Amino acid sequence: MGMIFGLIFAGGGCAFFWLAFLQPHIESSRADDWIPVEATLLSSEIEGSGDSLVNAVRFQYEYDGKKYESDQAHLVSPNLSYAEAQRLRDELPKGKVVEAFVNPDRPREAVLFRNHNASLFVAFFAIPFIVIGLSVSAFSLFGKSKKTRGKGFAQPAKSASAARRTPLLCLIGVAFVGMGGFSTWQMGISPILQSKAAETWPEIPCTITKSFVESHSDSDGTTYSVEIRFSYEWEGREYFGEDYTFSDTSSSGRASKKEIVDRYPEGSTATCFVNPDAPYQAVITRDMGFVPYAVTAFTSIFVFVGIGLIFFGLKRKAAPGPIAVTTDQEEVLDGERELTPASGRTARTMGAIFFALIWNAIASIPFFIFFSEGSKEWFLLIIALVFGCVGLFLIYNAVRSILVLRNPLPLVMVAPARLQPGSKMILSWQLSGSASRLTSLAVYLEGKEVARYRRGTRTVTEENVFFVTSLLETTEKGNFRNGMVEFPIPEETVPSMKSDNNEIFWQLVFVGQIPRWPDLCETYEVPLSPAKS
Amino acid sequence: MPNHLILDLPAKSFLPGDTLSGEIIWEFVTPPDSLYVSLGWWTSGRGERDERVVAEQEWKSPGTIGKESFVLQIPESIIPSFSGRLVSLEWGIQVSAKGVKIDDVVETVTISPTKKEIDISAETYKSKGKSVSIRNARMLSLSNRR
Hints:
The structure holds two protein chains of two kinds. By secondary structure, chain A is α+β, with helices and mostly antiparallel strands. Chain A has nine helices and 19 strands. By secondary structure, chain B is mainly β. In chain B, 4% of the residues lie in helices and 48% in strands. In chain B, the strands form two sheets. In chain B, strands 2, 4, 5, 7, 8, 9 and 10 form a seven-stranded mixed beta sheet that branches. A three-stranded antiparallel beta sheet of chain B has the order 1-3-6, with no helix packed on it. The longest helix of chain B has 6 residues. In chain B, 34% of the residues are buried. Classes of the chains: A alpha+beta, B mainly beta. At the A-B interface, strand 14, strand 15 and strand 18 of A face strand 4, strand 5, strand 8 and helix 1 of B.
């Protein structure tokens, strides 16, 4: 089943790669050996208006002593925007001498541009699908021997890598960064920068040639966009524009778009902003609203997730087994060791704030659409309310994390530095900060076993606490600020262990009650080394 | 005549740091490329399987019939044989023959400071670390086992 799924996945990726990249390249490669010659432009015009603009270019060239004419500017018909078509007209005026490429087998065939429609982005997007699909298939075919083996080893020690990276994770990360970065740039940052650059563009009159609300329907529902075409004149030459705003996105809520379209009826006169350096670029309004900013916030999440995946993919995984739990203090039997909290408070708080901000920024979008754009889609409101409730919880969690920053923090020391089953552990602590706010304090030692396994495409982690003992439980205020307890670690127990999918770890848990404030709860991992006979 | 591969271990319980000795006896129809004996551990239980070989010995072109003794050093600092609710770890010796069609021979051994498998599966508790409030923590006293 996994193999079939993987092959379908890889097949889809290969199809994308072929159609978007290889096939266009192969088609355009037929012109690689065409002969470059000088050509003179006989005419260069724009044809059409309203729905589309087409370049009409005619040029004359000489090959093998004979003169020919051609009206094929591109090897493959491109889908040019209004601005691109007009830029070509402006940059290729009548009479200009340019380079053309002649088919030596059929000299009547010549072009100015040996272009292709290959999309590097789609090809880039397809590669992870191919690799992931093939990896899933390969794992289904060859990965079972190890998984189902009851006893013994699948590989001898020689071939077992001591430490390794996860290239597949890197590849998925690159895909996330690529897609997220492209979307962030295309729908967020680029329109914002264009809008800023257009602040100095002059405002001139224009005539509306077409004005309508366009519907875009797919399985997720229908979205709408404002479509306004207009003509304007710059330095005696007529131009056509198709951009109402720099933000080329569509959203739900037809009423707000209809309202804009009604303000610009066909045949009416309005004003537009024209780029004086490239007059084929024009826009009716420079105002874009909040959408590009919201899109930037949303798509940036994919970029950050991708960077995280690349980071974890490049990080060497420690070799499984006892080596993973030995420390630089392995040989130091005496002395004491300072323990650090399992997770830093500041990092926890920053994470909670960041997550709450991102979530609520995204969750506010459906609310905004519903209330400001006159959408009457009640399903949208229900979704918005669900997301909003989660957002409120995340705000509560972020505020709570900020309050926890003021809690006293235990500075924890254990002796001996090399703890092992059978050791007598001496634990000492000192509370920094306002320890007087605590009304009780308890300290526990816990042993946990952790197992990770795959269920479908998910990795499930299960934990079980196999050992707990109370080292201290007190409500006497004098015992809070600092203290010391001794505890003999059982002889017949398991030391800390970390392998790819299984783990044993020991931790100290400090729990303290603070009236009308989030309680103190900090954990400190205690490395328990293997006992030496 | 079928292939035969026998692993003979005089003892099956060891302390960390001990030497583990044994014998392998074989009889094959065609000579194998090599014989290989390895000492290591593997996990079982709820999680995906992990494994590691810590010591090994190899004999190249050993002939069709033969007997070899081996001595493997058990590292001093090891995770002992144990059994838990989610994770268990077993130690074992595996003999493999390359170049002939025969299954590997695997014998489990117990390695621990007491020469017995450590059982951590008897009891289970709720974590104190997850109870962010001391009010809950008080309720989850040691007697509060699942």
